[in-house]
Task: structure prediction
Amino acid sequence: MKRVLITGAAGFLGSHLCDRFIKEGFYVIAMDNLVTGDLRNIEHLRSNTNFEFIHHDISKHIVIDGELNYILNFASPASPIDYLKIPIQTLKVGSLGTHNCLGLARAKGARILVASTSEVYGDPLVHPQNEEYWGHVNPVGYRGCYDEAKRFQEAITMAYHRHHGVETRIVRIFNTYGPRMRLNDGRVLPAFIGQALRGEDLTVFGDGSQTRSFCYVDDLVEGIYRLLMSDYAMPVNVGNPAEITIGEFAEEIIKLTGTTQKVVYKPLPQDDPKQRQPDITLAKEVLGWGPKVSREEGLKITYDYFKNLPEERLYEETHHREFK
Ligand code: UDP
Result:
């Protein structure tokens, strides 16, 4: 039985990856420090004998007993609100945390896939973004703590690949949504759905003309699985190219939820990218991958999930436990 370590396993993407690897017949070691992750996302797996959970901060040395075949490094705050609250931890997990994962991969002879992001392209001057583009990132802006940590992560991953011969994979993840996002993580989709469910107005930042392209989580997980199993070591974009303005997106959520609330406009956060759309030509070529779930379908599943959460979860505050 192949053994996989998934870091950030109690988070949105990490928990879906746990499900997928359990389904594929792996022994899954799930690791999380629970600063932004939530054990409720993996509760259903905890009685499974092929699953174990380790409460650990990967910014500190990682110890795993026994053999390890694969590592998926998904530990990091990933929403602007989260990483602005804990910028130092965000920088540490992307840099020191990735370094520890790479060291572990080297020691165990494991293949490692790291979760990078469309944020490495910053506020892009090339549209749509392909993997050749080097990006337009402000290192000293508010997003710098996340963007630069992820750029460092890519650099150190390539260094381990070239210098130590570690088998590495880099996925550049574009905006992804689905069940288990945190309602209060500040991301646009849970923000809008949470507001609709609580009977609040929907907050559009700026004039709503900025664009994003939203990928349903199952499509993303399929792309990641294929990349891990491929022999391609350079970064690959995985996302859904269906692009929409945030203003139009708010209208779609109003229609989906049937809310009678309206849209209100708030100031645009600093360095908020004006447009974002993945060029997925490479993923198609190398992985034979493309998204299958339409936004209409994916949003319906996601809304049903949020609608059925216990009432009190709608009102949970964002709070972060300090690193011990
Ligand atoms: N946004 C918004 N209202 C909100 C939250 C976000 O208009 O309540 C906008 C945000 O300014 C950005 C887009 O939605 O332009 C996507 O934001 P998100 O935080 O989900 O992810 P990003 O792609 O910016 O990392």
Notes: The chain has one domain: 3-244+250-317. Residues 79-80, 175, 186-188, 191, 203-205, 210, 212, 246, 268-269, 272 surround uridine-5'-diphosphate (CB under 6 Å). The domain at 3-244+250-317 is CATH 3.40.50.720 (Rossmann fold). The chain has a mean pLDDT of 96.
